[in-house]
Write a structure and sequence with these properties.
It contains three helices and 36 strands. The chain is mainly beta. A hairpin with a 5-residue loop joins strand 1 and strand 2.
């Protein structure tokens, strides 16, 4: 009963601010007509494609006109494309452009006569305003209960080598950034792909366990010993949301199409759904056992996991009222993948790949594979299986279930993870011993580069360079 109450409290606490920050969809559509790539952050902040920032003011009483239009601008008579300092719409919502005053401080423009829509408006009460923003005295009423953040960013300096440490990345990784969790440091290392040395780090209160990127704007982070899922804004380099769990959250999976994240909580025998539009918990999926090796089917229809207590494999049919399906027991499972309606399961100790027909639960085949398989990813009709002992990758054709290629990394370390790079055909292979990472082209099945890096990699996220 207590746990149920705690979960209800969590949902209430996380849902209310999200509702308060929701900019009406018709207003978003109006702005998008002039600026198609505008970012409406979950806390209400509006960023145009050229990084011009607007603060939204929510009216005391909104109107519902047939079509959205501009009522007033400052300076007067401007169009939205001209990016005026203040825009008041006919539904009584307003947006205020963040500008720099003569001393270089961030602020907003104040007209001599403040319109009633501005005087009675309120900033979203859970918004992270731009750092250093100064609200003019005669506009302090728009703040309400919003706490203006004056904390510093997470950015911390790291020792820099005096020896040149530049590397030449493959073209697809140019102007990208690595965010690396080492497994022992509380800091997330930030490394530009043209260097092997961290440029700086993002400080955390606990050692990060799992990190995932979303939309090249956010990091979602779970940590050892912490009941929080941290949401880091890469542009602000701050934690802009902390989602509280009753027990420690563990693995994170992102479904970009549905704009949701799945977060496992083994102690709760649950998988939680996080709405990435609002960064709030939206659902708790109760499961059997303690979840690990969480896997999402490429089409987003199923989740798979292994119960760490008894090595039982389960499927969660997301499109079938979260029906649980028992797949069977398999020894020392290291990874699960789903391709062509078949479940692929690697055993780290047996060096075997089991292939299961999803419809019948029948064993199709059991194949001997590269020793100590530690990770596996699915790309089109191929599986890429990473073996730690020989630092090699075996490619399985999921149409024939035969080994078609063996790719040797020659890193002389202990390979640990293979992570796809979003928006490319590449995957990054990391190593827990050798200070090196490899780049694989999954389309051509070619190892195209091995590069030095000065930190071990437990988890890595590759994003576009954030301005």
């Amino acid at each position: 009963m207590r746990k149920l109450f705690v979960m209800l409290l969590i949902f209430v606490m996380t849902a209310i601010p999200a509702a308060a920050s929701k900019i009406p969809s018709e207003l978003q559509d109006y702005i998008l007509k002039s600026f198609p790539k505008t970012d409406f952050r979950f806390d209400g902040l509006i960023t145009l494609p050229d990084n011009t920032v607007y603060l939204p003011l929510f009216p005391a009483k909104s109107e519902s006109p047939e079509t959205i239009a501009i009522k007033t601008t400052f300076p007067a008579g401007k169009t939205l494309l001209q990016k005026p300092d203040i825009v008041i719409f006919n539904n009584n919502y307003s947006i205020l452009k963040v500008i720099n005053d003569k001393n270089g401080k961030k602020t907003v423009f104040v007209p001599q006569v403040v319109p009633v829509e501005i005087r009675n408006g309120l900033l979203p009460q859970d918004m992270l305003v731009p750092h250093g923003l100064v609200i003019p005295e005669n506009l302090k009423g728009i703040v309400g209960n919003l706490k203006i953040d004056i904390t510093k960013s997470l950015k911390v300096e790291v020792p820099q080598s005096k020896i040149p440490v530049s590397v030449t990345p493959v073209p697809q990784l140019k102007n990208k950034t690595f965010y690396v969790a080492t497994g022992y440091s509380r800091n997330i290392q930030v490394i530009n792909t043209e260097s092997k040395t961290p440029a700086y780090a993002l400080a955390q209160d606990y050692v990060p366990n799992n990190i995932k990127g979303y939309d090249n704007k956010f990091l979602l982070v779970t940590s050892f010993g912490s009941n929080n899922l941290n949401v880091i804004s890469l542009k602000d380099e701050k934690i802009i949301k902390q989602i509280l769990f009753d027990n420690i959250p563990d693995e994170i999976l992102i479904d970009k199409t549905k704009k949701i994240a799945y977060v496992s909580s083994p102690q709760d025998s649950s998988i939680f759904v996080v709405n990435l539009d609002s960064m709030t918990l939206s659902k708790q999926i109760k499961i059997n056992g303690m979840c690990e090796r969480l896997t999402l089917a490429n089409d987003g229809s199923k989740l798979f996991y292994c119960d760490k207590k008894n090595n039982e494999i389960w499927a969660v049919e997301l499109d079938n009222n979260y029906l649980l399906k028992d797949i069977g027991k398999f020894p020392n499972v290291s990874k699960i993948e789903f391709n062509n309606n078949k479940i692929y399961i690697t055993s780290r100790t047996k060096n075997h790949l089991a292939i299961i027909d999803y419809n019948t639960n029948g064993l199709i085949a059991e194949i001997e594979i590269t020793p100590k398989p530690v990770d596996m990813i699915s790309y089109e009709n191929n599986l890429y299986i990473l073996g730690a002992l020989e630092n090699s990758i075996q490619v399985i054709d999921t149409k024939t279930d035969e080994i078609t290629d063996s790719i040797y990394l020659n890193t002389y370390g202990f390979s640990t993870n293979i992570d796809p790079v979003e928006g490319t055909t590449l995957a990054v292979i990391s190593d827990s011993r050798a200070t090196i990472y490899c780049v694989l082209d999954m389309k051509t099945k070619q190892l195209i580069k091995a590069s030095a890096i000065e930190v071990p990699i437990r988890a890595i996220v590759v994003t576009d360079r954030v301005k």
